[in-house]
Design brief:
Length: 118
């Protein structure tokens, strides 16, 4: 509360790409006049927006997911550790491949690498 979330430029681009293939609402929670050139390029990418707005309206599904599954208590515990020590966040070294069918018959694909090897 009261503190803006900060993400690195590549993280915001990854997030926007995932929102796009999920057919999620594309919202910008920033002052538009304060956007960096990188963010402006990310949020105005016509191809990414067209994937999001594809008339088929389908959502992507994971084709490959090497990330570990975690239950809610584990995630809550991790969140409490992060609150107490922001440096405690550990991202597993894993990846996901998401695919979304498009009305044209093509597929939109997003590859996401997580962790220190990304």
């Amino acid at each position: 509360p009261g503190v803006a979330a900060r993400v690195l430029p590549h993280q915001s681009r990854t997030q926007f790409s995932l929102w796009s293939v999920m057919a999620a609402p594309l919202l910008i929670g920033s002052k538009l006049l304060n956007l960096t050139d990188y963010d402006l390029q990310t949020y105005s990418n016509k191809l990414v927006i067209s994937v999001n707005q594809d008339p088929l309206g389908a959502q992507a599904r994971p084709l490959v997911d090497t990330c570990p599954e975690e239950d809610i208590p584990t995630l809550v515990e991790r969140g409490q550790r992060l609150r107490d020590d922001p440096g405690a966040w550990e991202v597993p070294d894993c990846h996901q491949v998401w695919a979304k069918p498009l009305q044209s018959g093509a597929m939109a694909v997003v590859l996401v690498n997580y962790g220190p090897g990304a």
